[in-house]
Amino acid sequence: MKGKKLLCMVLSLAAACSLLLIRDSAAWQNTNTGVSPSSLIVVDKMAFQFEGKLGSYLEYPEGTNQGDAYVVTEQNLIVTNGGRITVTNHSTIPTEARFKIYYDTPGHLYANNAAIEYSGSDTDSLSVDIGDNWILNTTDGYYYYQLPTPEGGSAPPAGFPAVSSSDTPTPVDVITNLMYLDELYVNGADVLNHADYFVGGDPFSGEVHVIFEAKQADLVDWTQITTWATS
Amino acid sequence: MNRIRKTVGRCLLVLVITVSVMVLAISLLPRAFGFVPCGMHDDSMEPMFRKGALVLAKPIAFDAIEEGDVLVFSDPNSSANFTRVVREVWRSEQQLVTASASSDQVDPKTTAYRCVVGKVDRSIPFAGYPAVWMHTLPAKIILASLYIIWIAVEIESYSVSKRRETTA
Prior knowledge:
A: mainly beta
């Protein structure tokens, strides 16, 4: 009897433990390994997920209509994602990426990219904080993604390395702050009336556009992946 | 009275041993054939699999996954598991767009292939209930308490019989 009792105890304990080996399947889990199907932009074999968008800070003085708007300076125009635009690369082959910022000021009308290119100079009317590893090419005005050279190693290829199935892609900052400065310049001259945000008595509605491009081979053209614009 | 007690005791022993062997067979036999058993915790996959069903999944290569396949996934961050239907396969990104069996609305996010445990090959209705129950905290507490009491009773009856022998 004792032997049977012992066998019974051991068997039942083993059975109970073996039940724990059976997985317990519940409802869908957010694994953080995926992307929102609607937010992933796929062009050929290039795949990016973007977070953050530009808004607008326009004030409408009392008694005026929306046509008489004032741009609000010194405020981050990136209105979501904690005030930053990020890109997550999901491309499974090496991909080069670049972006450019265009904006207008009084006297310039934004049309067909014929606005001012941001270059981070002292006479820019924008202040932009660019994410790490984006390098400005002063020849064409684009910021190119380039990982730093490791100590004692050789420079990595330009752009994002390929993502493998075992990787967890992480967001990369593109722009962490973008705002109009109190000082607005036209042709190098400071034209803003700081107190009223007017220029020569006329209200000013600023527009900023950011264009993001990518390509996967040396000889193909750059492809526009997405754009952001102040609304 | 003693005879009744002994009979009941024997019946209980036989019952426990039989049930234990059956549970061990359900838990371990599928693994011997390369299947991963998974109990359905809820009704998110009805009418395909009812709550309490035991599904058997077999590992599958990414290239073999097709729309409409039912896969078992494991969250690498929490080790939680879930079963979903594949609605789209994003080959170059190795991502899977998934949904429940009862709705066309896809899940809020895709899931990477590396989370795939396997493709559901067959299912056994109701066989997953013991496993689902066993994963709950009350089940573990109840079972642990029962074993502790059982062991305590056996130790006590052994001590009593030893004392009787010594006295005799």
